[in-house]
Amino acid sequence: xxxxxxxxxxxxxxxxxxxxxxxxxxxxxxxxxxxxxxxxxxxxxxxxxxxxxxxxxxxxxxxxxxxxxxxxxxxxxxxxxxxxxxxxxxxxxxxxxxxxxxxxxxxxxxxxxxxxxxxxxxxxxxxxxxxxxxxxxxxxxxxxxxxxxxxxxxxxxxxxxxxxxxxxxxxxxxxxxxxxxxxxxxxxxxxxxxxxxxxxxxxxxxxxxxxxxx
Length: 214
Ligand SMILES: CC(C)(COP(=O)(O)OP(=O)(O)OC[C@H]1O[C@@H](n2cnc3c(N)ncnc32)[C@H](O)[C@@H]1OP(=O)(O)O)[C@@H](O)C(=O)NCCC(=O)NCCS
Description:
By secondary structure, the protein is of the alpha+beta class. The chain has a single domain (20-208), classed as Aminopeptidase (3-Layer(aba) Sandwich), CATH 3.40.630. Helix content is 31%, strand content 25%. The protein has 5 helices and 7 strands, in the order βαααβββαβαββ. The protein has helices at residues 29-41, 52-67, 83-95, 143-158, 172-180; strands spanning 20-23, 101-105, 108-114, 127-134, 162-168, 184-195, 198-208. It has a 7-stranded mixed beta sheet with strand order 1-2-3-4-5-7-6. The chain is globular and about 45 Å long.
């Protein structure tokens, strides 16, 4: 398990002039669920031999388990997201006045970022735990980076002074986004994730923002 965080060199992405970032509304539920579920089917962990077929099989198993739950989890869990779950996730963000962003390209929602998590605990309200997802067809064009940057740029106005992301140690794309956004290694949960037949480490990456209020 490596916690070394060296910022990658700045890469120039294709211009995303048409990209629009905005807060999610309930009308985005379908797109949000679809992007999340596509992420489960297309894991970025193929370096270890995990294929898209492995992802689809694993997703089917997870779906069977979720169907048996009375109250499916709404966020930050490893399993498929149904339409009602996505709608609930958006509604929870709206009710809690948390920021859930979507990225729109040519009128289509192609990515999103939620910020529910640890900060729901008392005393942690200015720490946002972020999780973000980009449609496979538009990955690698800077959309993930733009979502994280947008939150950082608005952090002061939105009452955020610390960001936390929990990332699988072999999720190179997400680690690249976070390192470039100035996140540091805050910790690790060794072997905490079991998925696709393998145990994986969960890394905790964080960033203290300059607009600390207290
Ligand atoms: C992580 C994710 C959101 C990144 O979105 P994105 O729009 O592709 O992000 P960006 O284009 O801003 O940056 C991606 C970076 O990862 C790099 N990358 C992509 N795939 C990679 C891979 N398999 N190995 C190494 N680096 C990779 C890209 O080269 C790029 O880095 P660069 O700009 O230095 O070249 C997207 O890959 C995704 O949705 N993954 C599945 C869901 C997920 O893992 N979410 C994160 C949970 S914390």
